[in-house]
Amino acid sequence: MAHRFDDGPVLFQGLDITMEPGHTFALCGPSGCGKSTLLSILAGWVVPWHGRVERQGVARIGWVFQNPYGVPARTALDHVVFPLLSHGMKRGDAEPRALDVLGEFGLSAVAHRPFSALSGGEAQRLMLARAVCAHPDMLLVDEPTAQLDTATARSVCDVLGELADRGMIVVIATHDPAARAACDLTLDLARYAPVVGESVDNNGKEVDG
């Protein structure tokens, strides 16, 4: 697989990887190597310029963006309850589940705080909690530890690993060496450096373990 925007360089030329449930994958490399683009392709938002993505057993995909977004006046609990309500749960049943997930991300103390009053790190973890409650088969996460201190980042990586253990495919785009080390497999996109020209080599490359 490879991708190209207009007349720009070819990104991740020759990329060939199978992502199995139960594993965490780190997408690493310098800015401009295609980490966010690859997430978009995995999500189905972008069609690759060359090659294809085959999804087997992946009916629902969740994405947590690098910059948190939410409804300023709504509480943290409201944000995490919403995907549960959209799946047909009643509020009374959804709240205990949402509170459990908030607790997994260290957000119990801010459950009733409005989104506008959350710190950047709290808002980032809230987006992760909300995505988890949507029960995705594949969870795509862009720079999950960028706004977190070391201890909190470690706990978030642990939770993402636990989600994979429950059967999710978890894909993390990151510059953080600690987040990379916490993943099962690392895909270093620097090894698929952008190249100028239209030729594409279809030979797969080995993924770092």
- Element string (H = helix, E = strand): EHEHHHEHEHE
| The CATH top-level class label | Alpha Beta
Strand content: 5-15%
Tally of DSSP helical segments: 6
- Report the mean per-residue pLDDT as an integer: 87
Helix-residue proportion: 25-40%
Helix/strand structural class = alpha/beta
Shape: globular
Using the 3D structure, state the CATH architecture.
Answer: 3-Layer(aba) Sandwich
Gap from first CA to last CA? 20 Å
Low-confidence stretches: 195-209
Superfamily (CATH H level) name? P-loop containing nucleotide triphosphate hydrolases
Q: Give the radius of gyration.
A: 18 Å
Count the domains. Answer: 1
Total beta strand runs:
5
Give the strand order, joined by hyphens, for the main sheet: 2-3-4-1-5
Which sheet architecture does the biggest sheet show? Answer: 5 strands, parallel
> What is the CATH topology?
Rossmann fold
Can you describe what's shown?
With 209 residues, the protein is of the alpha/beta class. It has one domain: Rossmann fold (3-Layer(aba) Sandwich). It has 6 helices and 5 strands; from the N terminus they run E-H-E-H-H-H-E-H-E-H-E. The protein has helices spanning 35-43, 76-86, 91-104, 120-133, 150-165, 177-182, and strands at residues 23-28, 61-64, 138-142, 169-173, 185-188. The chain has a 5-stranded parallel beta sheet with strand order 2-3-4-1-5, sandwiched between helices. Helix 5 (150-165) links the parallel strand 3 (138-142) and strand 4. Helix 2 (76-86) packs across helix 3 (91-104) and helix 2 runs parallel beside helix 4 (120-133). The two termini are 20 Å apart. The model is unreliable at 195-209 (pLDDT under 50).
